[in-house]
Design goal:
4-stranded antiparallel β-sheet; binds adenosine-5'-diphosphate; 6-stranded mixed β-sheet; 10 strands; binds magnesium ion; single chain; about 250 residues; 8 helices; alpha/beta; Rossmann fold
Length: about 250
């Protein structure tokens, strides 16, 4: 199924269980090239497990995953994919690295650890830092920054190799509401201006849905998958499947 029409991510009939415990059941989900998919679900609904399957860290017992048209087991172009994990935002104030250095680590895989950076590598690092609006902080220690600022730095590190697909697992956990909103706006810009495909995992339904192009609701299985307009029309229905019937959806005011 290689060719122009291939999706960034295509998941078919995937099931995953840890021992006896079924966590994901018959998941089919597509992230088209150029889409910004918000994947929402409560804690324990299997979001991180699904991401680990997509990245090839876990092998599902059933079903298949294609990345850019290639089966994940055979996929080799990992430089096309940037990943920011849930636990990224945990640097403490003693961590001795500047923003510039942390972002540079995104190039290490490509360059080899002991190669000196060329001028053009430095420019790439600075461009990634600018893309997340952190240029003023490039020489600051990462530990001195707020959680939201640190998370931007981790995005920059993922961006420095210019991925076609960026996967983020709850990047705004522990970040205040205003910073989270700014952060979603930044992701929307990456999606629209760089045509980067994005998969954003979150349990923050209300605000996120203003920024994405598509929404999927997960709780062991997919309860809803559609574009943003369909989601907004069917919000209560889509969410009651994953959060129960008494969910109250907060609408974001601009
Ligand atoms: N390594 C593991 N072994 C056994 N159970 C696990 C493991 N990791 C996660 N789980 C369980 O699988 C379920 C889904 O977890 P997870 O994918 O982390 O959900 P989410 O990211 O949506 O919070 C939870 O009930 C969790 O306790
Ligand atoms: Mg998780």
């Amino acid at each position: 199924m290689k060719g122009k029409e291939e999706a960034a991510i295509s998941i078919r009939n995937l099931s995953y269980h840890y021992g006896e415990r079924n966590v994901l059941e018959n998941i089919s989900l597509t992230v088209q090239k150029g889409a910004f998919l918000g994947l929402v679900g409560p804690n324990g609904s299997g979001k991180s497990t699904l991401i680990k399957c997509i990245l090839g860290f876990l092998k599902p017992q059933e079903g298949s995953i294609f990345l850019f048209g290639e089966k994940v087991e055979r996929f080799k172009e990992w430089n096309k994919i940037g990943y920011v994990s849930q636990k990224a935002n945990s640097f403490n104030t003693a961590f001795p690295a500047t923003v510039f250095e942390v972002v540079s680590m995104g190039l290490v895989g490509k360059l080899g650890l002991f190669r000196f950076f060329k001028k053009q590598d430095k420019e790439k690092v600075m461009k990634a830092i600018e893309a997340v609006g952190m240029e003023e902080f490039a020489r600051r220690n990462i530990g001195e920054l707020s959680g939201g600022q640190q998370q931007r730095v981790f995005i920059a590190r993922a961006l420095v190799s210019d991925p076609e697909l960026l996967i983020l697992d709850e990047p705004t956990v522990g970040v205040d509401a205003q910073s989270a909103t700014d952060f979603y706006g930044m992701l929307k810009t990456l999606n629209e201006e760089r045509h980067m495909s994005l998969l954003l995992v979150t349990h923050d339904v209300g605000v996120m849905s203003d920024y994405v192009t598509d929404v999927a609701c997960l709780n062991q299985t997919i309860h809803f998958h559609g574009n943003k307009e369909e989601f907004k029309k069917n919000k209560e229905e889509g969410l009651s499947g994953v959060y129960g019937h008494h969910v109250h959806v907060l609408n974001h005011q601009h």
